[in-house]
């Protein structure tokens, strides 16, 4: 269930710390205490604190200095000051510095409970607002960021241009893992009518099943154990914007029914609530599974499938659009040059040939990871064949066939022999040039040639 808010009490009186531990329900809150400001700051640096109850008078660093430091570390942590009667002036100064509120010793039990609950609710709302701002301010993606010249991708571009002109159209993007489904969804949103509204992405496969309903629709305070405050769901956050539901096939059957109702009625209730909340979010879904097969197996609702599949976009795997590989490599090199302050000019023709002929089971994501890895490690201006991962070289080496009964050690030896021989041929059997090409010492090359039966 939801993680309990972590409340830190900073007070040099042990009795005050113990009072708060008794006062605050341990089933709703995690409460810990420290006796000095220095210890409190250490906790804030190393742990995720929701709320601090801070005494103004402390040994060493006083409460005002601690408050200033806490706000420097994380301005979203709410702080309630604990004061004695004669330090109210300090309490006013604390409010100016960002404290949520202050209470006097001895404090009223009911009053402090209410203040704590309201401070935690404010923190939750602040986090939601910051989340929306971050999504809204994210760099807009243009179609130029999707690099392709293949006919299959050009057809997809035409569909995207049309849906960007329309409002509230439901889209289902299908394709293997790593083909760029979320990139397509974000690009449609960023170039569409709703581009100034939130884009909220939800990975349905990454959310625990018992939290799915709360994640989608939110919940009211007290709706279940540990629901200590009201939570705004993704449908509410995405209202007027776009809700991207990735891995839609992973939804539980009962959640599918509730999702269908929201799509039809454009309204829902929070978990534990009775108030109907309207939503006008555009729904873009994505899947790497065969939903028609899932329907036949009784794992996916047919009526929900047709509701989601108004505009289908079927992304081809990279192995079916190999003509896009050189373009993607060029694009990624430029991208990582900027990111890592490198000056890579290009990949060699031999490297491009191997990358183009590779089957790419991980699709564009795999290619991106490989180019990024090379960009980080290389000091050269041209990406050479010897910088490519061994599994790609093995897969693309036509002279090394996979045969039943050949041990891995023998297969590796065969590949290494063929690879070194190819390098020798490329360098016209000049050992110094070959060693440089393979990034090994000349004496190492000679040793390997002798061991592999490639006589000088």
Strand order of the largest sheet: 2-1-3-4-5
Strand content: 5-15%
The CATH class of the largest domain is Alpha Beta
- Shape descriptor reads globular
Mean pLDDT across the residues is: 86
Counting copies of identical and different chains, the oligomeric state is single chain
Distance between the termini: 68 Å
Secondary-structure class: alpha/beta
Radius of gyration: 30 Å
Number of helices: 19
* Integer count of domains: 4
- The appropriate CATH architecture of the largest domain is 3-Layer(aba) Sandwich
Largest sheet: 5 strands, parallel
**If you consult CATH, what is the topology of the largest domain?**
Rossmann fold
Count of extended strands: 14
Overview in brief:
The protein has helices at 14-23, 37-46, 63-73, 88-96, 109-137, 151-164, 181-190, 212-217, 234-237, 253-265, 291-296, 302-308, 325-340, 349-357, 363-377, 390-396, 408-426, 431-437, 442-451, and strands at residues 6-10, 30-34, 51-55, 78-83, 101-104, 171-174, 199-203, 242-246, 267-269, 276-278, 282-287, 311-314, 346-347, 382-383. The protein is α/β, with parallel strands linked by helices and 456 residues long. Helix 17 (408-426) crosses helix 18 (431-437).
